[in-house]
Amino acid sequence: MKIKEVIVVEGLHDKIAIERAVEADCLISGGSAVSESFLKQVERAQRERGVIIFTDPDYPGERIRKIVAKRVPGCKHAFLPKEEAMENGDIGIENASPESIRRALEAVRTEWAGAEEQFSWLEIQQLGLTGLPNSAELRDQLGRILGIGHGNAKTFWKKLNMLGITRAEWEAAWNQVETAHSNTGKN
Question: Of 98, 111, 128, whose CA–CA distance to 18 is shortest?
Answer without folding.
Answer: 98
